[in-house]
Amino acid sequence: MATGTKTNVRPLEDRILVRPEEGQETTISGIVIPDTAKEKPQEGVVLAVGPGKRNEDGDLIAIDVNEGDRVLYSKYGGTEITVDGEDLLILSSRDALAVLG
């Protein structure tokens, strides 16, 4: 799935679909970092957003992020999925800590 491509995954309730951004492949001095030593990504681009969650009165509470936003999220939050060979993450909107940029 190329950048900016629509996906056929539609998150439910207050969930968001994120494409994680991979960390550095090498250090400043040029040393290659193996996959086993890389930190788990905590930034990504929002690909899709659920409709929101309903409160006790039945009113829909909208989500604070939009498709295309770059977000910072909890390190171990969400569920990893693979769609069309691409690793994605489904997060609860509570796991999105900030919108970047």
What are the key terms here?
101 residues, mainly beta, 10 Kd Chaperonin, Protein Cpn10, Chain O, six-stranded antiparallel beta sheet, two-stranded antiparallel sheet, 8 strands
Secondary structure layout:
Layout: E1 15-20, E2 43-49, E3 53-54, E4 60-61, E5 70-73, E6 79-83, E7 86-92, E8 96-100
Antiparallel strand pairs: 1-2, 1-7, 2-5, 3-4, 5-8, 6-7
Shape type = elongated
Number of domains: 1
Count of runs of 4 or more consecutive helical residues: 0
CATH topology tier name: 10 Kd Chaperonin, Protein Cpn10, Chain O
Question: Which regions have little confidence, pLDDT < 50, spanning 5+ residues?
Answer: none
Give helix and strand order, one letter per element, not per position: EEEEEEEE
The biggest sheet amounts to:
6 strands, antiparallel
Strand content: 35-45%
The name of the CATH architecture is: Roll
* Overall average residue pLDDT: 84
Provide the helix percentage: under 10%
